Amino acid sequence: MFRKLSIVALAAALAAAPLPVLAQSKKDSVVMGMTLEPPGLDPTTAAAAAIAEVTLYNIYETLTKINEDSSVSPLLAESWQASPDLKTYTFKLRKGVKFQNGEAFDSAAVKFSFERNAAPTSTNKDKSLFQAFESVTTPDADTVVIAVKYSEPNLPFLLGQASASIVEPKSASTDVTQPVGTGPYQLGAWVKGSSITLNKWADYRNASAIKLSKVTIRFISDPAAQIAALLSGDIDAFPRFTTRGVAQFKSDPRFTVLVGGSKAKTIVAINEKKKPLDDVRVRRAILAAIDRKAIIDGAVDGFGTPIGSFYTPGSLGYVDTTGINPYDPEKAKKLLAEAGVTTPLELSLKLPQPPYARQGGEILAAQLAKVGITAKIENVEWAQWLSQVFAPNGPHNYDLTIVSHVEPFDLVKLTEPDFYLGYNSEAFNALYKQIVTTPDEAGRAKLLGDTQRMMATDAVAGFLFQPQWPTVINKKLKGVWKEVPQFENDFSTWSWE
Q1: Residues of 182-219 as b/e, b for ≥16 C-beta within 10 angstroms?
Q2: Of 1, 50, 383, 445, which is the most exposed, with the fewest CB atoms less than 10 Å away?
Q3: Is the pTM of this model over 0.70?
Q4: What is the pLDDT of residues 101-114, one digit of tens each?
């Protein structure tokens, strides 16, 4: 009895007593979720956007920086000037910058990086851009002059992308697993299949401005697991979050939901090197079978704007081409008959991991079935998709697939002879050449409109939608971008309230 009363009395005393105030330092680490794990950590040798999500502006830096509003500001270049014809750009470099292995950053490193990207053996996703450089010269250690074969008003923007990351020549060959850059973070650990840890680099030139000392990136591909990880507090932020879970986080006061626009294009890629997909009537039949609205509603919960070509609303010269290939199942059947296709036509549909692809693929297969096309779904891991479907000089072993192309200004891809779509149109290539040799904006805008109409008429792909990307974060986390001009996570802007 005595003991029981003592415990009760003690509990009451503790409840009544004021709690001690403990000195707490501001939180300086964050755990972020990502859907896909990068296949490596060198964005200059592979196409996966997941590489940039980890490394761009964190481990590696570029001459210029693309900001949240799509504007371009200096980064490794302090300033630049363009010639009147927009064919020659002179970059003045930031002085006193070092790579994480102690080597000096200078114009020689820029020249090495860009010429490596342009080499015949290069696997850089923007290889054609660097091959369009007539020359990269270095008048001195702090100056780089780039002469381009054609007028390129977007060069400062393009050089802010991950594919233009500046690498250190001596360590470039091992950057895939041991990245060395000039950025504020270094690779701490990579537990394959689970997570990557980045640690603040103490010798970064502006280290005092970097608030987070450690960033852990966890790879969670399953939408239900993504939701659970946020709700449990296991992760603090999830950019490009599954659209399925957005509603519940909007009503949860612990979180902030940001919904940003993009320059991405989600498409049904069609392998035009395969018969009967080389017949434009068959491709038009596929497009006529697609109800874009049903896919947008069912695959991404309405977070998308319909598109009719490989070009997005808000871009220079945009025209709405969705009416060129409208949803019309009866027309699809007639086109297949005109092309001499015996139905059911069996096609493979390879789907990578992202929810928009897997969920969209189920809806697409059901739509195609209504017009006599049997789409045999094959779910593949991201690394498989990259090597089997997308890789330059790869087997391009697929009939149909669904993917988001997230890079802006990438119409040039359709001119590349080994691009996985297999389009290869002399008329399109000639039109694109006109665009890049037309310096005035109004002229370019008109030609870009012609380009979009040609892509739609040629049924280059099943153009679905421009996605909106939701990001869910702990409400006390600041500096996370809402808009998504490209896939990146600039941890130098992140901090805790």
Answers
A1: bbbbbbeebeeeebbbbebbeebeeeeebbbeebbbbb
A2: 1
A3: yes
A4: 999 999 999 999 99
